[in-house]
Amino acid sequence: xxxxxxxxxxxxxxxxxxxxxxxxxxxxxxxxxxxxxxxxxxxxxxxxxxxxxxxxxxxxxxxxxxxxxxxxxxxxxxxxxxxxxxxxxxxxxxxxxxxxxxxxxxxxxxxxxxxxxxxxxxxxxxxxxxxxxxxxxxxxxxxxxxxxxxxxxxxxxxxxxxxxxxxxxxxxxxxxxxxxxxx
Length: 183
Ligand SMILES: CC(C)(COP(=O)(O)OP(=O)(O)OC[C@H]1O[C@@H](n2cnc3c(N)ncnc32)[C@H](O)[C@@H]1OP(=O)(O)O)[C@@H](O)C(=O)NCCC(=O)NCCS
Prior knowledge:
Elements: E1 2-3, E2 7-11, H1 17-24, H2 27-32, H3 41-53, E3 61-67, E4 70-83, E5 88-95, H4 105-120, E6 125-131, H5 135-143, E7 147-158, E8 161-171, H6 172-182
Helix pairs in contact: 1-3
Bound molecules: coenzyme A.
């Protein structure tokens, strides 16, 4: 278990899969992700088997939030494309349950996952890609210290138009400097 201020990150269990199916079938959630088709439980189960057999450090983690004395599963996040020679990785996040958007859980998850990346996995750089229309996500990434590094012009066709994909990144030293301010 990895604990943040408002969230905890834990291993994904088979019982979590129906919730993922529900979230990936929500068009508004899918819009921020690189999925454009509805998803079945069978596909989720196949994905789950793949992650179980993959690199442990790259296994996505479930995001739980605390409500009263209960933990509620609201999404997932993780690091992937980990490159140990260059000490870098890419990051992904989804709060799938929309009732929990705009409550600070995404920011706390990002902060916690970056701590894990830099202080446990000993990475030096974490990057991500985000669609320009996903202003909520961009706000969160900027808040936790990501910088805009590049723009893939008209990279995605969605909802009848092309849009740019932004590449953002943060270095370990930048994160440490922000952490000093946070403490
Ligand atoms: C992106 C995501 C992780 C953000 O999580 P979250 O818990 O909603 O984020 P937070 O509550 O920490 O912060 C959201 C901030 O964006 C702001 N925001 C919301 N909509 C916005 C918009 N259209 N434009 C600008 N800012 C916006 C909120 O006001 C909030 O800022 P504040 O705390 O200063 O008020 C979550 O919405 C999500 O998972 N979406 C679906 C999947 C997805 O898009 N993943 C990212 C793929 S790159």
